[in-house]
Structure formats: structure tokens, C-alpha cells
Design brief:
Chain A: Belongs to the cytochrome c oxidase subunit 3 family. Chain A: Its EC number is 7.1.1.9. The complex is a heterodimer of chains A (about 190) and B (about 130). Helices cover about 80% and strands about 0% of the residues of chain A. By secondary structure, chain A is an all-alpha fold. Chain A starts with a helix and ends with a helix. The relative contact order of chain A is 0.17. The model of chain A has no long low-confidence stretch (mean pLDDT about 90). By secondary structure, chain B is mainly alpha-helical. In chain B, α3 packs antiparallel against α4. Chain B starts with a helix and ends in a 10-residue tail after the last helix. The chains are: A mainly alpha (about 190), B mainly alpha (about 130). At the A-B interface, α1 and α5 of A face α2 and α4 of B.
């Protein structure tokens, strides 16, 4: 029941991002020459590496969910014995990868501001920071959710379906945010 | 759950042609409406596919069968808080935060602090104290 509610909410989140995509395409259609000069300043290989980091975090998150479904919160082997990792270890890895993504994006912002693209500089700056910024806020929110779920798993003496359900719905959210980023990345960095 | 799935998936068959007609009528030059309609199709697909996927997993429920009995649905439905103050505190935190945006930025910090307390309180409500398990 929690998971159905989460999916319905995520569907409404999709419409939130639809508004952002629509904004991007409207302004792009209105001033194509601005897009030509401003998108040339983007660092595509850098963003591609960041995208790979975010996508890999989705895989580590899913492996954590499989462990949660097995009701296995903690690792039973050594730290580097990945097969015996529990949900907590996979989720910690996911949080680390997600944090790298947000940090690299913040660094990318500083680079772009140095190249003269700021939120208040022109229409391109506005849509670039609005779309990627709202996505970044979603990622940051997801990281907080992961940490709350990790905390739940750590304080539970008996890891049951209550904890597993929370982990599963947070993974739905994370995959959604990941897919939205792939769409954003394709539009902003490839379609331009 | 087939009926629920197809109620949502039906949107796919309405919004996709609508988006194509809209795009054709505007010579594919007006991206906002077209994009919104295509993403509406994606939205209905998302919920519909999830329900279809869940229906495959759980099999026919009593309410899906003509010979279903009410007592077959007895048992635990989910975990619900019989009473909880945390939603009230969380909404107060959000309200104070928005008040801060409107009247003075310093109020926002109070709202943010209250929100953190309420969020942690709500998430851990059934994991600590008398409910520790």
C-alpha cells in the first residue's frame, strides 16, 4: 500500500519535471542563437562521468533492496566481501555515490559561473539552473531519505517488513530521480 | 488488479494520439503542450505498469473474483499509526518555513529546525521507545 502511494506520488513528480522540460524547450525555441553560444560552454565529458556515477548509484541501491527483501540489514562477511553485504552497506555506498554526484554538480556550477552562466545572467542560465538545480535538490532529498532508512535499519533489533518497505519505496524514488537525470542529461548536454 | 491497471493504462491510448495530433496541428513548433501531453502518457503508463506488475506478483485478490468473500480480505492491511502528533508538527514546520519566506528570512531557520525534528520524529516513531523492535 505504501509502495502504490509512492508510485502515484512519483507520477505527479513526473508532471513537475514536465513543466521544467516545457520551460526549457519554450525558451530554447524563443532564442536559438543564445542556445548556440551558451551550450558551447558546457563541459560534456565531465557531466557524462557524473551521470555514470549517478546511474551506478541506482545499481548499488537496487542491490541493497534485494538484501532488504531478504531481510538482511548488515553484512555477515568481511568489509570487501560484496556477496555478503547487507542492505546498510549497499545504501551507504549509494549515499556516497549520490553525494559525489551532488558535489561534482556544485563544482560544475562554479565552473559555469566563472564562464559567465549564472542564474540571473540570461534565459539559458535560468533554465539550466532551474532544471538541474531542482533535480539536484531531489537528489539531496533522496540522500536524506537513504540516511533515515539506514538509521531505521541500524536501530531495529529485528529487521522486518516495516523496515524493508521503507527501503523499497526510497529505492523507487531514487530510480525515478535517476531516470529524470538521464532525460535531463540527454536534453541539456546532447540535444542542447 | 487488472481493472485498476487498465484504468490508468487507458490514459496512454488517449494522451499519445492527442499529443501527436497536437504536435501535427502546431507544425511541431510548440513544444510545451506536446511535451506535457507526452509526459501525461508517461505518467499514466508509470502507474498503470506498476499496478499491472503488482497484479502479476500478487495474483487474483478476493475482490477480483466473482466468488470472493469479505472474510478472505481479513488480516493486516498495512502499518498505520492509530494516532500521531508528528504530521501536525511537520506541517507546522512547513508553515513556519513558508511564513519565513514571506515575512523575514530568520523565521525560515525556525521552520527548518522544526521540520528536521518532525521528520526524524515521524520516521522513527515506530522504531524507538515503546515501539522499539
Amino acid at each position: 500500500m505504501v509502495s502504490v502511494g509512492t508510485v502515484v506520488w512519483l507520477a505527479s513528480e513526473l508532471m513537475f519535471f514536465a513543466a521544467l522540460f516545457a520551460m526549457y524547450f519554450t525558451l530554447r525555441a524563443a532564442s536559438p542563437e543564445m542556445w548556440a553560444t551558451e551550450t558551447a560552454k558546457l563541459n560534456v565529458p565531465f557531466a557524462l562521468i557524473n551521470t555514470i556515477i549517478l546511474v551506478s548509484s541506482s545499481f548499488s541501491c537496487q542491490l541493497g533492496v534485494f538484501r532488504a527483501e531478504d531481510l538482511k540489514p548488515r553484512r555477515t562477511g568481511g568489509l570487501f566481501n560484496l556477496k555478503e553485504w547487507g542492505m546498510v552497506e549497499w545504501f551507504v555506498l549509494t549515499v556516497i555515490l549520490g553525494s559525489i554526484f551532488v558535489s561534482v554538480q556544485a563544482y560544475e556550477y562554479t565552473e559555469l559561473v566563472a564562464h559567465g552562466i549564472a542564474m540571473n545572467s540570461n534565459a539559458y542560465g535560468s533554465v539550466f539552473y532551474m532544471t538541474t538545480g531542482f533535480h539536484g535538490l531531489h537528489v539531496a532529498g533522496g540522500l536524506i531519505a537513504f540516511m533515515l532508512i539506514i538509521g531505521r535499519a541500524l536501530i531495529a533489533r529485528k529487521f522486518g517488513h516495516f523496515e524493508a518497505t521503507g527501503a523499497i519505496v526510497v529505492s523507487y524514488y531514487w530510480h525515478f530521480v535517476d531516470v529524470v537525470w538521464i532525460a535531463l542529461f540527454a536534453i541539456i548536454y546532447f540535444l542542447k | 488488479m487488472k481493472v485498476e491497471s487498465w484504468i490508468f493504462l487507458g490514459g496512454l491510448f488517449f494522451f499519445t494520439p492527442t499529443a501527436i495530433v497536437y504536435g501535427y496541428m502546431t507544425n511541431w513548433e510548440e513544444p510545451v503542450g506536446m511535451l506535457a501531453l507526452f509526459m501525461l502518457a508517461a505518467m499514466t503508463l508509470m502507474v498503470g505498469w506498476y499496478l499491472l506488475h503488482t497484479s502479476r506478483r500478487v495474483g487474483p485478490r478476493p475482490e477480483d473474483r466473482v466468488d470472493g468473500e469479505i472474510h478472505e480480505n481479513a488480516g493486516a492491511v498495512g502499518l498505520f499509526a492509530p494516532w500521531s502528533w508528528w504530521p501536525l508538527i511537520l506541517s507546522t514546520g512547513a508553515a513556519v518555513g513558508f511564513l519565513g519566506l514571506a515575512v523575514g528570512f530568520w523565521v525560515l531557520y525556525i521552520g527548518a529546525g522544526l521540520t528536521v525534528i518532525a521528520l526524524v520524529g515521524w520516521v522513527y516513531e515506530f522504531s524507538r521507545g515503546n515501539h522499539a523492535h
